[in-house]
Task: inverse folding
């Protein structure tokens, strides 16, 4: 590409570097580090020095969204993932947020309860919990690249009692309060990818006949109650939500996803939350076009964006932010590379879930990159299914 062509691309991507307001914070650009499980915390869920350095390196993003954080012991689904339900967790995350803020960044913590996608080996022998006792497909292999979870079929979960549902909702609220104590600028509820809130939303995993299941409003009630619990503990502009409408990852299905998510997004819009993250994973209907007009607030689009497609979505006024995953794994200085049109490091897929600095904090900035390992700044993400979803 000659200089003129690159200048044209930079002009069209200028919109990515305009500031905007998210919750109570002004962020410097429209690029977000998408939430991605990376499994570098301690076994007891306390963030490590590696976590501190990883997020500090990427603080030039407009917004960092952390990997999934379990809000209670029963929410844990993977080894080496972080929690936020103890004083040690809070202190560990304070080290991360301080490093990000010292570097001029903004960070939200993603709160992720896996529900039925856990294993007794992760839960001190306890049976995983879910809206209903519906076992995930025992033949499914959703992760294939070094994911540290038991290499055996998912067990059948136990249906939460009404009182236990209320307890989980309270745990989300308590976790939000701890997130504020830990210095996060906000929290994002992970209501996507087949985890617990999406299990309540989906017709094949929620067979309840009480106030938490059946009709669209009742299946949506758990997510909205978690939002309300977290906002009561903090504030509405401290809380965001991630949705992957209609996606069947982790064996969740909805008889009428458009009806479910239309209702959910309208209700979320009434609550004045910090932002809504939407992912379109090729579900056969226009997720962004259908749902974005229903939400009166900032929206982040995520899933498969490159620099040109990110700029197009922002320039058209559809998205306020774009969540970038794999390119941010490999390029801690991605915002500057996008701004300058500099080539990108290639991500090493095999190291996504290893437990050391390799493939985590050892990716170089552009000035130190090996020219032989670079790809176009406008390269599309590596297609690897959903294995980096956090």
Result:
């Amino acid at each position: 590409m000659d200089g003129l062509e690159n200048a044209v691309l930079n002009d069209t991507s200028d919109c990515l570097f305009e500031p905007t307001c998210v919750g109570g914070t002004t962020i410097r650009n429209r690029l977000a580090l998408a939430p991605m499980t990376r499994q570098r915390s301690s076994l007891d869920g306390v963030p490590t020095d590696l976590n501190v350095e990883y997020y500090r390196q990427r603080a030039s993003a407009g917004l960092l969204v952390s990997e999934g954080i379990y809000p209670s012991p029963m929410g844990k689904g993977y080894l080496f993932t972080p929690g936020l339900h103890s004083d040690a967790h809070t202190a560990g995350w304070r080290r991360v947020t301080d490093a990000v803020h010292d570097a001029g960044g903004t960070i939200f913590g993603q709160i992720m309860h896996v529900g039925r996608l856990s294993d007794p080996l992760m839960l001190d022998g306890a049976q995983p919990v879910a809206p209903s006792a519906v076992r995930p497909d025992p033949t499914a292999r959703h992760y294939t690249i070094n994911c540290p979870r038991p290499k055996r079929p998912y067990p059948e979960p136990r249906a939460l009692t009404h009182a236990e549902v209320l307890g989980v909702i309270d745990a989300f609220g308590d976790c939000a309060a701890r997130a504020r104590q830990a210095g996060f600028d906000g929290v994002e509820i992970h209501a996507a990818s087949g985890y617990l809130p999406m299990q309540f939303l989906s017709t094949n995993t929620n067979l309840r006949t009480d106030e938490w299941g059946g009709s669209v409003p009742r299946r949506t009630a758990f997510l909205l109650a978690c939002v309300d619990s977290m906002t009561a503990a903090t504030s509405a502009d401290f809380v965001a939500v991630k949705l992957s409408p209609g996606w069947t990852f982790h064996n969740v299905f909805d008889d009428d996803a458009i009806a479910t998510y239309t209702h959910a997004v309208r209700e979320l819009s009434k609550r004045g939350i910090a932002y809504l993250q939407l992912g379109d994973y090729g579900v056969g209907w226009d997720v962004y076009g259908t749902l974005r007009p229903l939400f009166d607030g900032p929206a982040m689009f995520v899933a498969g964006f490159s620099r040109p497609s990110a700029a197009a979505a922002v320039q058209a006024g559809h998205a306020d932010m774009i969540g970038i995953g794999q390119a941010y794994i490999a390029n801690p200085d991605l915002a500057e590379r996008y701004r300058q049109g500099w080539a990108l490091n290639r991500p090493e897929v095999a190291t996504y879930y290893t437990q050391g600095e390799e493939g985590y904090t050892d990716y170089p900035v552009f000035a130190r990159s090996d020219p032989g390992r670079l790809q176009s700044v406008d390269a599309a993400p590596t297609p690897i299914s959903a294995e980096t979803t956090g």
Summary: The domain at 3-375 is CATH 3.20.20.70 (TIM Barrel). DSSP finds eleven helices and 14 strands in the chain. Residues 129 and 158 are 5 Å apart (CA to CA). The mean pLDDT is 94.
